[in-house]
Sequence to fold (75 residues):
Amino acid sequence: MPRVSAKRQITLPIDQCREVGIGPGDEVRSYVADGRITIVRKMPGAARGFLRHVVGDPTVSDEESLEDALDESTS
Fold:
């Protein structure tokens, strides 16, 4: 059974890593939901094309967009 070190490091069991394709040097992400931690291997290009349906408004400058976002976050 893995234990958490003083540096909060965890050694994952090799059989579980092999099962999900995690190898030495791979990048992983961790997420917390419903009181559980989930670890997944980061896949290069996994988000490619994720926002392709979003159409920008060329009449709005970067500065205007930033100001609008900041105004909304302080409201």
